[in-house]
Input
Amino acid sequence: LHRVHQQKGTVAVSLAAVDKPPKLMDTMKVRHLELVSKGQLVQWAVVEDGNTVFVAFKGSDANISDVISSLGAIPVQHPVHGLYVHTCVHTSLQAGPSEELGVAGRLSAILQQVARRRSVVLCGHSLGGGYALLVALELLHANSARVAAVMTFGSPHVVVPSVESRDWKRLSAITCHFINSWDAVARIPSQWEWLEGTVKSVLSTLEVKTGPVKVGVPFAEGVTRKVIDHLHATYAALKDRVAKYDTVGAIYFLSPGVAFTMCVPTDGRTRSHHEYLRKTPEEWGWFVFEQHSSIAYLSVLTELIEHADGLRRAGLFAHLSELATAAPGILQSRCKCLERALGRCGGGPLSGALVAQHAST
Output
């Protein structure tokens, strides 16, 4: 691993110190790695691949505590760009070995050495996607790197849209937000129906064992009702603040075994995209968490990329730029987002981002 950042106290480690070194494509090279340690809450890596530099943030697969804790994530105004962001995510990004520089500051110094004139793609799964978004905002505001794209996989909502903000517009124009089927985490905390439904589905399946006695569904239903009532009360007190969170950029809804994706742009004014975000399954179950796993995203997106490569080889993507130019309004936006996400060769930045973020996880 090349140490490229000489800031005092930076965590720079050898890949030999990692129990399971990440499996990257042959063309990829790890240039910097920061692991979770004392005072360091965010794990991330800088990976170069030809003319692109990927910054991958490690997330975590969903658990019920993540869902419940999202309720209390009151937005806080960022001191630099002024947008309101997720309190916990913002605080984590400010922690680290340096008292003066948060993650964005340390990354900016590294990219000045590594990226130079190359494009930078930030990516992350789950909470890692939230980190990627907030760091990208800081980089865009400071114009300290050529941020070409931000790709999040099952990321919770961590930014309050501001359609008048230049920084938010720039971030939204380059962000691709992927949602796998009924992934619950990718719809919170702004969608109350999902917060209530996921908690109910988990608690209703609980079985509590006390010695030889197993307390099943009746007990769980009682606990479920109390928890839901508590969530209602908590949400009622925080709704005006928590409900302001939203997605950023183009939202891609994925389904296993389906060789295409539905793209819906984030509309910070009308929030018309919530028509799709608030849809819930007919029945709740543990699958809302299983579909959030990094393995699930890797599988469904790999299928999509392979299918897109087949279409490209057949010449069906040859005139995508012309179509985007000629297409009116929303179709034009979707064509451009699709071209940006899939790239022109081998899945482009999406392939690289997917590999980099999965390796970091």
